[in-house]
């Protein structure tokens, strides 16, 4: 027992091979059997030296020992980053104020792409619904399970994980915590538990439009796409884009080439490992290789690495341009707006907000949300600086294509499409 701010403090240090080490501090209050409790869970990758350095900080003040953690949750004003753990069977949505939380994939919240767009939905929930929020940014794929657990421990009512790569750890967390609501962006696991809602988007439809548009605007007769990784949430864009080019050729009796992706072989150009979604230099090299092959319009589906493609087209001196993905590139990447024809957007911010609101209102279910052209969950962003450069007949043709996709007259074949 040690005195701390006029109270008695008992500190327990434990080490787990799975969870790393933890400090548990309890200080007795005036009322018997009532305790204040702090738990700080740190990555097992922290060194023993940091453990020894952190212990005095707990004795001094429990909050200061958070500095020893690699992945402490980033909580909004009024919510505690070092919240108490909650038992798997306890319903966090009924444990005090409603709290919405998010875990990014390894590209981080500043990817100018789907993590950042998803976070906008969480921020909107905080401002419009008045809910508390917390988030944790993953630095590596190995962080996902630990970061999800940290959000459970932070007493989150709903936890949104961002990206296909978080499927397995999100499924495991949802099954282990049946009374905590979960939602996952860009993934649709088979037979999700009742507390897990998939948030997915049929971007093959909007990418089809993008492929048609690129074909109508190319001056070299070659357009291109490349991905960050060969995963369904990436290849769905590439499938739609390539098939949009094929449709243009059939309608106009042209022979525009789509390079970087072969729909039949389901193979193409991807950013080099490691960390391909963060490899900006790798994205630039991949884009430059496609430009060197004659492409003058590129659709990068590579998260933050897509910034490399924007750098490549900008340095072309007006000879090449890009179509961005996930969000409106002129808003997320204003420095490159003069080179962004349009963007294939996904309404991830809207889907996240709606999932949080449904959980807060007691209307949450595990039925997948599927964003489509018909419901506005995906589509093409405004043309911005290219608006006057796109012929009126092409704009009308895009509207007709949208109607034909919605009616089923145009069929897009992609194994990655939502079922």
TrEMBL record:
The secretion signal range is: none
Recorded hits in SUPFAM superfamilies, A to Z, give: Periplasmic binding protein-like I
Where in or outside the cell it occurs: the entry states: Cell membrane
Entry membrane topology: Lipid-anchor
Q: Which InterPro entries match?
A: BMP_lipoprotein, Mycoplasma_p48, Peripla_BP_I, PnrA-like
User: Which UniProt keywords are given for this protein, alphabetically ordered?
Assistant: Cell membrane, Lipoprotein, Membrane, Signal
Gene Ontology CC, one term: plasma membrane
Q: Which residues form the ABC transporter substrate-binding protein PnrA-like domain?
A: 100-388
Where does the source fall among the domains of life? Bacteria
Which family does the record assign? Belongs to the BMP lipoprotein family.
- According to UniProt, the name of this protein is Basic membrane lipoprotein
> Which species is this record about?
Cutibacterium acnes (strain DSM 16379 / KPA171202) (Propionibacterium acnes)
Q: What is the lineage of its organism?
A: Bacteria, Bacillati, Actinomycetota, Actinomycetes, Propionibacteriales
